[in-house]
Amino acid sequence: MNDIFILPKIADSRGNLSIIEEMKQIPFKIKRVYWIYDVPGGVERGGHAYRQNEEFIVALSGSFDVCLDNGKEKKVISLNRSYMGVYIPKGIWRVMNNFSTNSLALIVSSIDYDEKDYIMDYEEFLQYSTTSDRF
């Protein structure tokens, strides 16, 4: 599975424009959008998985790493271009770290916020991940 998606980039003398449309550039309908910014040096975000939620993450400004774990395999994806994003299917543990100064992460989600959808304990995630085969 290719996790990195290259978004359309329209460039002209006025600058660049990129777009995300549901069921076109990303494989789900958009229910929620949020962003992470002003992350202090050395701090990690995420540290959880979702039972149902799918996400698409873009570095609108700056750079950061997205560390993905399916319970069997781990991979690190560095995001540093506003026309590139990473798709994270449900059931994948994710941690975001190595945020550069003034970085801005845009996260597009497939469901509304639901605290019950989160798996916050890594050991619970490992038990859950044995029933899935994602990546």
TrEMBL record:
It holds the Pfam family FdtA. This is WxcM-like domain-containing protein. Transmembrane segments: none annotated. InterPro entries: QdtA_cupin_dom, RmlC-like_jellyroll, RmlC_Cupin_sf. SUPFAM superfamilies: RmlC-like cupins (SSF51182). Residues 5-128 form the Sugar 3,4-ketoisomerase QdtA cupin domain.
